[in-house]
Each structure stands twice: as C-alpha cells, then as structure tokens.
Amino acid sequence: MIKTLAAQIKEYKLPSILTPVYMVGEVIMETIIPLMMASIIDKGVEVGDMNHIYKMGALMVITALVSLFFGSMGAIYGSKASTGFAKNLRKAMYENIQTFSFSNIDKFSTSSLVTRLTTDVTTLQMAYQMILRMAMRAPATLVFAMVMSFIINAKLASVYLVAILVLGVFIVFIMRRASQYFRAVFEKYDEMNSSVQENVSAIREVKAYVREDYETERFHKASFNIYNMFISAEKNVIAMMPIMQATVYTCILLLSWIGAKMIVADSLTTGELMSLLTYCMNILMNLMMLSMIFVMLTMSQASAKRICEVLDEESDMKNPENPVMSVASGDIEFENVVFRYHESSEKPILDNVSLKIKSGETIGIIGATGSAKSSLVNLVSRLYDVSSGSVKVGGVDVREYDMEVLRNEVSVVLQKNVLFSGSIIDNLRWGNPNATEEDCALASAMACADEFIDKLPDGYNTHVEQGGANFSGGQRQRLCIARALMKKPKVLILDDSTSAVDTATDAKIRAAFTSEIPGTTKLIIAQRISSVQHADRIVVMEDGRIDGVGTHEELIKNNEIYRDVFESQNGGNRDFDE
Ligand SMILES: Nc1ncnc2c1ncn2[C@@H]1O[C@H](COP(=O)(O)OP(=O)(O)O)[C@@H](O)[C@H]1O
Ligand SMILES: [Mg+2]
C-alpha cells in the first residue's frame, strides 16, 4: 500500500524531503533558545551585566527569526508537497478508472468511486501534510530536548524521563481505544455517503413514491449514529487532557522542588532550572503531538486502502499484442458461448449459445426481462468477455481486435442510455468528433429526432442538462440512436431503445434503417412484437438460452413463447379497438 501511494509523490519528492528538513531546523533553533534564556539569567540578571543581557537578547531575536523562517518554509513546502501528492493521486485514479472495463466498474459502485476520488484523497492529503511536518519534528524535539537536559543536569532530567514513560503508556492505551472508534466512524461515513448519493441521484423516484419521510428518517439515523461514535472517540481523546495536565504539573512541581534544593546547594543555577522547565514543556507537548499523528494515521488508513484499491485495480480487458485494425464485415457469429458476470457463480447467464448472423441482416431479439438479451449483445462490442466459446465479428474473434476499432464499427445504444451536459450537437459528436452539421442532421432524420429538434428555438444548439433531464424518455432514446448512427457502423445494436417511442415513430425509424443503411447488421432488442415482426429473423431468448430462431410466420407456427407473447399483445390491441 505504501509503495502504491509513494509512487504518486513523483515531482513533489524535493518538497517532501525539504519539509522535514526545515522542521528539524526549527526544532534546533527552539532548543537553543532556552540555553540563551539560562545565560541571560545566570550571567546577566544575577550579576547585573546589562551588556550581556542586550547581547543575548539580540541573539535570541535573531534565533527566533531564523526559527520563524524555517517554520514558514516547512509550512509552505509541506502544503506544496501534500496538495501536489493529492493532485497526482486524483489524476492516477481518474486515469485508471477510464481504463476500467464494465466488469471492473461492476466491482465499485459509482458513488463509492466518487467518494474515493474526493473525500478519501482529501483525508490522505491532510495526513500527508501532518506526517511531513510533524513526524520528524516531534521525535526531533524529544531527542534534542532530552539530550540538552541530560547535559545540563542528568539527575533532574531523569525526573521527566520517568514522566514521559508514564504519559507514554497512557497515551498509547487511550489512542488505541480512540482509533477503534475513529475507524468505525469512517466505515459508517462510507455507508452514509453512498446512501446520500443514491438518494440524491434518484430524488425523482423518491418523490414519485412519496418516500421522502422514510429516506429522511433513514438519513437522520445514519447521521446520528456517526455523531454518537464521534462523541465516543472524542471522549477518549479528551480524557487525555487531564492526564497530560497532571503529568505536566507533577513534573514542574518535582523539578522546582528538587531544583530549588540543588540551587541552594549550589549544584544548579536559576537559569539552568528555567531552561529545564522549558524543555520539559516542549517534550510533553510533542508527545501529545505524536499521539495526534497516530490518530490521524488510523483515520487515513481506511482512506489509503480505498484509494489503493482503485489504483491497483487492473482492467481485465486488454488490447491483444498484434490487434486486428479493421473489421471486414458485419457478420456476427456466436459459437458455444457461455458467459458469467462472476467467474465463481454456478449457473451461467448465457448457456451454450450459438448463432450465425450475416452482414446486413436485421435480427430481432425478444424474451422476458432477465433472459440475458442485454448480456448477449454486450458481448458483440466486447463490453464483457465470454467465459468460454467465442464471439466473432467479420470472421475474427472480438478479442483479437483493437478495442477502439471494434467499438467504432459496432455501435451500441445501451439499455441505460445517457446523454451528457452540453448542446445536442456536442452529444451527437460523441459518435464522431469530425461530423459536419449535415451528418448530424442526416443521423437525426434517420432516428426521427429531427421532428422535435427542429421545433426547439435553438435547434441543434439546445442545451442538454446532465443526464438529458430536459428531454422526454422517447426523445432521449431517439437522440441516443442518432448518436450511435453517427459512427456509420457495420453493426448497430439497439437494446430496447425504442421502448418509450410511440409505435408510429418506431415504425418510421425501422423503415429508415431498411432504406438508408441496408448494409449494416442490425440487432434490435424489443419488448413489442411489432418492433421485431418485420426483421429478417427473430431470436427468442429464454433464461440464457435461445429458445427459437426464425421469421415471424415460422415462430408463430413453431414457438410457444413467441405465440403466447404475440397473442397477449395483439389480444390487448383488439380489446382496445373494441
Ligand atoms: N452487471 C451485472 N452484474 C451481475 N449480474 C448481472 C449484470 N447485468 C445483468 N445481470 C444478470 O444477468 C441476467 C440477465 O440480465 P440481462 O442480460 O440484463 O437480461 P435482459 O436484458 O434480457 O433483461 C439477470 O439475471 C441479471 O440479474
Ligand atoms: Mg436488458
């Protein structure tokens, strides 16, 4: 994990090294100052030497300024290193996510990916800055102050050696308890985040089902839970304050008591006692600091793990060594295809499917929801890889193509189609960045999208909201079909893409396909028999298998499922007519 993360420091190595160096510089200055104090008291105040006081005072001001300089440089380089590190992390994660295949994406939910890219990176950024600035500074202070104290007076210094040990034990004990709570809090955070993201993105459904109260209640509970856990964690941290104070004051009392006796016996000077007291405070403060770093590290551990999961995820779909760079034709062949979404699942989603489709054919695919229609067509553009068997396009296994080449020739309108924010023409150009306005108009006409686009005041420049929210379901579907047509593909796949389009328009789109792109192989998944009735052949899917293949007339005669569906849909129509 450390290795994966450290690889992202990249060009910020220098600031990452300079920060602790500057911080140590600051510590050295801070260690010198009490010595000067001692000198002022012992050689200035006690003997009444004003000159010495001025000289030392000036030196102290200079040292303080140098210390300030080191401190500021440490802060500047610390921020540079940590924000740069976070930037690199986000970039690396984002780039890796772009290479993910569909099955990689299935592993993470979208909301979790967003949380990882934002909240988790910020947590790590803060932790990194803290580590750079404090992880060296705190131990350095401990060591330097300890050494100085022993040089000044070994007997007194051993007083706080004991105190440090006592306090150290307490701190470790308390922090271990607190970090358990912190870890739990961060897990709950994740749950709350995904619940928020899911509900906000589905706010229309929430409202449609009048679930606002329920969802609000659920959110309150999750939120209150986190509140309680944070309180428990903080209670533990707060418990450290009185222990810390007690140790500090005990130390001061002991030092003053033993020190006073020593001063009387002439084995210690007042100035030395002063500097010992300052070192004592320094040491105890830095112990606290160390314990805070410890908490910070526990809190960021969960984030680091989640970030590494994204960085380490390897796309399970790679281009072959010598990819085939052109698709010869729109022939498609499924050969004994077995497919599972998870290698471990027992029952395959597609079970031994074989089917040959000739270039230019129109194939209708029908079947109940869950019969694996989408799964079948998604194999053609290699959105998923088969578990065994093969899928060939233009006579070549899809796994041998360059993926970009294949996907440019096999155009899919996904069942869950999405439009992006931007103008209509921007969206159409997703299909082909170099398309002219005429190309766009042509594709829109084929998909019957021109009918409503021409009525819009801004036409093709009309703004599309995120997800296409300002268009109706049927309009969105027609825009998505037009977008898919922009590629002038050899294979066109429509996955239930006219479900929200009225029957007349549906028929018009089909007619346009037949007259305008006769050479393109068309796979059309539909629920309505009328959408596939005129296809060259119709495939009836049932529970991951092909139940029957044939023309409308053949299937009516031979296929029970097809006949049932046809009769129920036509029966419905007759009722309506009567
Ligand atoms: N991304 C996925 N991960 C795991 N299982 C899936 C995924 N997509 C679909 N399935 C499962 O595969 C089966 C077939 O789904 P699908 O091909 O979408 O059917 P259809 O398109 O015919 O409605 C269903 O049982 C569904 O639960
Ligand atoms: Mg489907």
Can you list the strand order of the major beta sheet? Answer: 6-9-10-3-11-12
Low-confidence stretches: 574-578
Bound molecules: adenosine-5'-diphosphate, magnesium ion
Largest sheet: 6 strands, mixed
Q: Tally the structural domains.
A: 2
Chain-averaged pLDDT: 90
Please count the beta strands (DSSP E, at least 2 residues each). Answer: 12
Can you tell me the CATH topology of the largest domain? ABC transporter transmembrane region fold
Describe, in plain words, how this protein is organized in 3D.
By secondary structure, the protein is an alpha/beta fold. The protein folds into two domains: 2-312, Up-down Bundle (ABC transporter transmembrane region fold), CATH 1.20.1560; 332-416 and 490-577, Rossmann fold. It has 19 helices and twelve strands. The protein has helices at residues 2-6, 13-45, 50-99, 102-107, 110-152, 154-201, 203-208, 212-264, 270-312, 373-378, 403-409, 424-428, 437-446, 450-453, 473-485, 503-516, 529-532, 552-558, 560-577, and strands spanning 332-339, 350-357, 362-367, 388-393, 396-397, 410-413, 422-423, 463-464, 491-495, 521-525, 537-542, 545-550. The strands form three sheets. The protein has a six-stranded mixed sheet with strand order 6-9-10-3-11-12. Strand 9 (491-495), helix 16 and strand 10 form a beta-alpha-beta unit. Helix 6 (154-201) runs antiparallel to helix 8, helix 13 crosses helix 15 and helix 18 (552-558) crosses helix 19 (560-577). The longest helix is centred in the middle third of the chain and has 53 residues, at 212-264. Residues 574-578 have low confidence and may be disordered. It binds adenosine-5'-diphosphate and magnesium ion. Adenosine-5'-diphosphate binds next to helix 10. The site of magnesium ion has 5 residues, from helix 10.
